[in-house]
């Protein structure tokens, strides 16, 4: 979704805005623009469709010593095509603004603007807000700050606006109601405001998150916080971000997505270390978190999420059902939101969101809170709107994820869910003195610490797993369709594998529960179609292999993922991708419990999509039409 950066201060404005916008590229956008203000109050605007690279030379060609402030924007089109005219910033007389969100009553405002004899230049709803501010300023003879304050309550829907005026060039006014805004300031640098913390981290790691209804006035001397509706000053706490700016770079990888796939062994460890008190491989206690008590008291758990996070939620159901007695349902937030969901006593609702900003997930949590049903959330972004809306929060420690297609954040969500399922299961086992269950969960926790080791082997460049992935990708990339099939834990993985391929390689891919193959998709199987069969040695294995045979009989190409010693699978598949894992140790024990194989399979499928997309030459980190953080419905 749209990205915003605004800056006033003593450093070169153009490069700061451009770098900041590049930090926000991951959100997805289709045009961009920058406005620069000089001391005398004159402003210049540079806009273009496409990538930031299109405006960069125009901005940098200017003598930067002239400017002391400005605003920049990356636009993800909603109202009006992605072209130069519709790109932000928009200018109305002396006012220049950027906007993120949707103005729902834009028709009404448009009528007013025409009625007063003006004609907006763009097709956007955003430009209309500048007219509203201008009308307020002219009518009441007030300044920009007061004008924004009076105009803001007149727009409906969720919006954030950052605005400057040529008449008051030393200040930026920013107001939030919906899409996030974060601000930062230091004496040597000045003040910066942005859609998230990433553009700010290059300058300071101390930030302020705006609440809905906040208005700030940024000047090089500092930032003032107000309630946008009453105009009264408010206090906002400074938050220290523990992500350093170098984690925002590619560090030698061709793409952020590849870097993030390879980071997973480390991010799994980071999340484990954040939640276990030590590494003694004994049963661990979570750091104190009220969410644990909420879950322990729950009679029913409803998980809601969107996209990849929904797939994590689907996996969560399998883990909770295996390790606890808790009834669990997993739902799409966009569906749950408009259904007549009936809450039952003891129900707890858990939202999962990498960004912590997804509009549908947030809306469900808000509705549920209104119904006084306890809410929990799993998110990767501290200070995000969802983290503040949920009554209890479990953070994942994947670090910043820049690739639009979620990889390491998904794995971290899975990890959080399996940890919670184990934690809850252990409590129940202690209470019911179920010795066997306790041993099972202790083993789960112990083995979790082995996952990073196996995963590093799977991802090792030139290793047998990564090589097999590459070969399979090269041989199947021209397939007319892909089906991913699996049972049990491998069913959500099949959905996620197909989603990744669609997202970054733009090919037709569907994920199916292997048992459903015969209820429809089998009609499509023929030479030229590829079926990815996810078949680790687990309790569903024999059934999945039967499905594989049905696929083979129809002439589709088979890529099978399974345990390294699985000769049956290797002999039946066109391409066999071995997990770096034997199904049995010499003593007959399996090397990793079947509930943990998703932690190896998911990154392998991510790599497969990556390799296919790489050969197809798509824009892997910023796939067309997609946004990382979907803050509109
Ligand atoms: C977008 C992203 C997906 C993500 C989904 C949910 O569609 O492109 O990668 O899974 O939103 O996002 P969330 O931040 O709530 O996990």
**What is the level-2 CATH architecture name of the largest domain?**
4-Layer Sandwich
- CATH structural fold name of the largest domain: Glutamine Phosphoribosylpyrophosphate, subunit 1, domain 1
Kindly, what is the distance between the CA atoms of the first and last residues, rounded to a whole number of angstroms? 11 Å
- Give me the Rg, rounded: 26 Å
The shape is globular
Spatial strand arrangement across the major sheet:
3-2-4-1-10-9-11-14
Average pLDDT confidence is 91
Give a list of the ligands: 6-O-phosphono-alpha-D-glucopyranose
Instruction: Give the domain tally.
Output: 3
Describe what you observe in this structure:
This protein is α/β, with parallel strands linked by helices and 633 residues long. The protein folds into three domains: 3-248, Aminohydrolase, N-terminal nucleophile (Ntn) domain (Glutamine Phosphoribosylpyrophosphate, subunit 1, domain 1); 251-449, Rossmann fold; 460-633, 3-Layer(aba) Sandwich (Rossmann fold). It contains 21 helices and 24 strands. An eight-stranded antiparallel beta sheet has the order 3-2-4-1-10-9-11-14. The chain has a six-stranded antiparallel beta sheet with strand order 5-6-7-8-12-13. A five-stranded parallel beta sheet has the order 16-15-17-18-19, sandwiched between helices. Strand 18, helix 13 (385-389) and strand 19 form a beta-alpha-beta unit. Helix 8 runs parallel beside helix 14, helix 10 (307-323) packs antiparallel against helix 18 and helix 16 (451-459) packs parallel to helix 21. The chain is globular. The mean pLDDT is 91. 6-O-phosphono-alpha-D-glucopyranose binds at residues 306-309, 353-355, 358, 361, 404-406, 626, 628-630.
């Amino acid at each position: 979704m749209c990205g915003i950066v605004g800056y006033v201060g003593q450093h070169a404005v153009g490069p700061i805005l451009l770098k900041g916008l590049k930090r926000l590229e991951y959100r997805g956008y289709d045009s961009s623009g920058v406005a620069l203000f000089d001391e005398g109050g004159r402003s210049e605007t540079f806009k273009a469709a496409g990538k930031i690279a299109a405006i960069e030379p125009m901005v940098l060609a200017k003598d930067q010593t002239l400017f002391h402030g400005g605003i920049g924007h990356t636009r993800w089109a909603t109202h009006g095509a992605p072209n130069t005219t519709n790109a932000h910033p928009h200018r109305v007389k002396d006012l220049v603004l950027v906007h993120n969100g949707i103005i729902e009553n834009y028709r009404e405002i448009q009528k007013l603007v025409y009625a007063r004899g003006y004609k907006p230049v763009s097709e956007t709803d955003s430009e209309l807000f500048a007219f509203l501010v201008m009308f307020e300023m002219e009518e009441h003879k007030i300044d920009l700050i007061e004008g924004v304050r009076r105009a803001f309550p007149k727009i409906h829907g969720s919006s954030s606006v950052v605005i400057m005026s040529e008449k008051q060039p030393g200040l930026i006014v920013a107001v939030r109601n919906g899409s996030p805004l974060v601000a930062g300031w230091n004496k040597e640098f000045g003040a910066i405001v942005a859609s998230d913390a990433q553009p700010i981290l290059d300058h300071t790691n101390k930030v302020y998150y705006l609440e809905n209804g906040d208005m700030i006035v940024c000047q090089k001397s500092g930032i003032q916080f107000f309630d946008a509706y009453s105009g009264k000053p408010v206090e906002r706490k400074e938050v220290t971000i523990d992500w350093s700016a170098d984690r925002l770079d590619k560090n030698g990888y061709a793409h952020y997505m590849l870097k993030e796939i390879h980071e997973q062994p480390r991010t799994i460890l980071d999340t484990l270390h954040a939640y276990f008190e030590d590494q003694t491989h004994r049963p661990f206690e979570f750091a104190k978190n009220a969410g644990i008590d909420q879950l322990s008291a729950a009679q029913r758990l409803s998980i809601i999420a969107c996209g990849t996070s929904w797939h994590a939620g689907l996996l969560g159901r399998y883990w909770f059902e295996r390790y606890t007695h808790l009834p669990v349902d997993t739902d799409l937030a966009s569906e749950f939101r408009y259904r007549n969901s009936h809450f039952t006593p003891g129900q707890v609702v858990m939202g999962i969101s990498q960004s912590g900003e997804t509009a549908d997930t947030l809306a469900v949590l808000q509705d549920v809170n209104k119904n006084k049903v306890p809410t929990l959330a799993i998110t990767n972004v501290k200070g995000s709107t969802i983290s503040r809306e949920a009554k209890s929060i479990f953070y994942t420690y994947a670090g910043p994820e820049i690739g639009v297609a979620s990889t390491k954040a998904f794995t971290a969500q899975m990890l959080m869910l399996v940890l919670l399922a184990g934690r809850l299961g252990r409590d129940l086992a202690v209470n019911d003195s179920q010795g066997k269950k306790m041993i099972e969960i202790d083993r789960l926790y112990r083995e979790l610490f082995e996952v990073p080791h196996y995963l590093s082997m799977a991802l090792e460049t030139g290793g047998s797993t990564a090589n097999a992935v590459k070969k399979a990708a090269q041989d199947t990339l021209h397939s007319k369709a892909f089906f991913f099939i699996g049972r049990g834990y491998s069913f959500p993985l099949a959905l996620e594998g197909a989603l990744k391929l669609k997202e970054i390689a733009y090919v037709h891919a569907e994920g199916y529960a292997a048992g459903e193959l015969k209820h429809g998709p089998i009609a499509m199987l023929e030479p030229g179609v590829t079926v990815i069969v996810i078949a680790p040695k687990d309790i569903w294995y024999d059934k999945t292999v039967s499905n594989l045979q049905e696929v083979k009989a129809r002439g589709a190409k088979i890529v099978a993922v399974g345990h390294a010693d699985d000769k049956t699978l290797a002999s039946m598949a066109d391409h066999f991708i071995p997990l770096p894992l034997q199904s049995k140790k010499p003593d007959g024990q399996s090397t990793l419990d079947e509930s943990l194989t998703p932690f190896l399979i998911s990154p392998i499928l991510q790599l497969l999509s990556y390799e296919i997309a790489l050969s197809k030459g798509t824009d892997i980190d910023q796939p067309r039409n997609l946004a990382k953080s979907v803050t509109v419905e």
